Amino acid sequence: MALSRLSSRSNTFLKPAITALHSPIRRHVSTDTSPITIETAVPFTSHLCESPSRSVETSSEEILAFFRDMAQMRRMEIAADSLYKAKLIRGFCHLYDGQEALAVGMEAAITKKDAIITSYRDHCTFIGRGGKLVDAFSELMGRKTGCSHGKGGSMHFYKKDASFYGGHGIVGAQIPLGCGLAFAQKYNKDEAVTFVLYGDGAANQGQLFEALNIAALWDLPAILVCENNHYGMGTATWRSAKSPAYFKRGDYVPGLKVDGMDALAVKQACKFAKEHALKNGPIILEMDTYRYHGHSMSDPGSTYRTRDEISGVRQVRDPIERVRKLLLSHDIATEKELKDMEKEIRKEVDDAVAQAKESPVPDSSELFTNMYVKDCGVESFGADRKDLKVTLP
Amino acid sequence: MSSIIHGPGAATALSTFNPVDSKKLTNLSVRSQRYIVAGSDASKKKSFGSSLTVRHSQKLIPNAAAVATKKEADTSASTGHELLLFEALQEGLEEEMDRDANVCVMGEDVGHYGGSYKVTKGLADKFGDLRVLDTPICENAFTGMAIGAAMTGLRPVIEGMNMGFLLLAFNQISNNCGMLHYTSGGQFTIPVVIRGPGGVGRQLGAEHSQRLESYFQSIPGIQMVACSTPYNAKGLMKAAIRSENPVILFEHVLLYNLKEKIPDEDYICNLEEAEMVRPGEHITILTYSRMRYHVMQAAKTLVNKGYDPEVIDIRSLKPFDLHTIGNSVKKTHRVLIVEECMRTGGIGASLTAAINENFHDYLDAPVMCLSSQDVPTPYAGTLEEWTVVQPAQIVTAVEQLCQ
């Protein structure tokens, strides 16, 4: 969808200009799908398996799509930040900015038949799976048009038709669920895999090891992805894990450590993992990534790390800047074109926010819907037990 | 605790509401007026009167093929076969696994070992290792896995080797099983069945004698049923598997060897319905699971003393079948609840509250609730006997209530 818009724009761009494809001066915004090979900056480290090659096959179109999608995700999270400060989003709001490369890199390697399940830091994963901005903002603001009809909130985004299973508030509880999804895929002979995302904090949960044991025993096509952003809320990894080499903690399960700020490396690793999981069972991917915001909007994010550290990572490892440099150095797009794209994305996000602000809140009757499937005539009370009694349909 | 005014036959009943006997209901209608906010249910804007529908006197069978015409299965039907309760459960499970390839069983030692109480005996040989899965000992993980699999459309039956072990899976049951349908705005259904033996056994010790129905009853989004006879065990097992909602089926360790004759044909029991065990006039005794047998034993003594107790096995622990219970209360005006849960926060406590709230005007005496003592179940046989309600106590309570 994004690309077709781009290509129609580029056609109007093109008409006045000359286009020798090899013109060094003004390269049109590229929709070229011919393969380019790019080396990842950081090598992979592996445990009990071979590393995939550092040369990633990609194309101009794909790299441009990375840029566009990541810029959109970044804009969305920043908009969510402002909305939270304006008290339009309440409760908990966990932002993903800094980690966008993970969401887009993963999507580039898989199909919508492969399932993804993640924790509460799920806004960008939802968008990556094809969720619409306006659905996301509506849900964040508790409106009827939200992806969970306003009943889930920030931590409960789901998209069944894109095999996105959420969106879970309890740390680590999604890991057994994810292994269950992989089990169902094996049961139904789907030839698809499940990516189970969790953080460095959740990596110390017992249920991870329980589920991993079962997944390895039963050869389930589960890929456990540890999004290691180095802080479990306020606790750094060196203070919470005796062995912070999360990709090795599977012991008998192979693992791979990946530079999670490099979308191409993430793509390569996920592609490799999918092939591996379909043949040999579970594998752990540790994505070395970073979040710029605090754990959630209630956390300033600077009491346990220095501002220099945050800005340092932003300067050296920012995923969007990396892709921007790639686009510029390969002459796929110019500075101006990228800036224009960002402006357009900003407008898109602002429009979605405005539309979501206009949406209605759920009616009070929605309180009792979706309690049971074909709710069987149960009557339910509101808090004072005299009013708001309703018969569930 | 939610209450039911009208009989909750499942989906099919919705289109066939039949406000029969509206005369009988007017009293109730007038009294309950203050509770109703009209139109709070958006999709079914029924008028007040019709929401208090009388249930058909026939048992409503959601998806089943044939239906047994009698509620009780100790029948005079010449066909039918006799079996033990655990065999009835096994038969129900096997029939459902034959009927739907999505049904699978997960639990510890359910496969090759045949199940610690033999409920899954023979199933692994018949259906294979992918459908009858021996899990390692990790309740949290395998309950979570079953719920995750259910999100995609499989219908796992989770066995807790003892219900008490499911405390380790409480997070998965409460947050994921109960809530995912709601928080995803209806996108995912979780058609799991969680089953296992619970209750006080023969000197099994405190940790293996737990009654988890009291802990689970608050979880929104789940249904709970307790079986007590081979007939209702098979029926409830099948209904639970076919239900789209997560259902927790409570079995009792000491009831697995009960023998009864059950019908040959396919039947299921309504998940939200209570069972009339013995109609009577003087007092309503509400009970479930093993205490049903203590009550029936006490009933023999009571009949000899000239009392006529009405005994109802409530079967559905969440939601309560307040229709059947209400009709009984209106007839007898006295209620005794006999349960195995603890006094504090048990099923009896919720049921007492529900009855008081809904049927207060019909009661001639306060609702009395006999429950187990609020102690961990001791090992010593005599002490264990004293923690649980015994028939003699039931007789005394009835005599006291009926003065």
From TrEMBL, chain A:
InterPro entries the record matches:
DH_E1, PDH_E1_Alpha_Subunit, Pyrv_DH_E1_asu_subgrp-y, THDP-binding
Q: Needs which cofactor?
A: thiamine diphosphate
| Upper lineage | Eukaryota, Viridiplantae, Streptophyta, Embryophyta, Tracheophyta
Enzyme class, broadest EC rank: oxidoreductase
What is this protein's name? Answer: Pyruvate dehydrogenase E1 component subunit alpha
The UniProt keywords, alphabetically, are: Oxidoreductase, Pyruvate, Thiamine pyrophosphate
Can you tell which superkingdom this protein's organism belongs to?
Eukaryota
Q: Which organism is it from?
A: Camelina sativa (False flax)
How would you summarize the oligomeric state and partners of this protein? Answer: Tetramer of 2 alpha and 2 beta subunits.
TrEMBL record, chain B:
Give one Pfam family. Transketolase_C
InterPro entries annotated for this entry?
THDP-binding, Transketo_C/PFOR_II, Transketolase-like_Pyr-bd, Transketolase_C
Q: Does the keyword Cell membrane apply?
A: no
User: Which chemical reaction does it catalyze?
Assistant: N(6)-[(R)-lipoyl]-L-lysyl-[protein] + pyruvate + H(+) = N(6)-[(R)-S(8)-acetyldihydrolipoyl]-L-lysyl-[protein] + CO2
In what residue span(s) does the Transketolase-like pyrimidine-binding domain sit?
Answer: 83-258
CDD domains xref list: TPP_PYR_E1-PDHc-beta_like
Q: Which Gene3D superfamilies match?
A: 3.40.50.920, 3.40.50.970
Q: What is this protein called?
A: pyruvate dehydrogenase (acetyl-transferring)
Where does this protein come from, organism-wise? Camelina sativa (False flax)
The encoding gene is LOC104777038
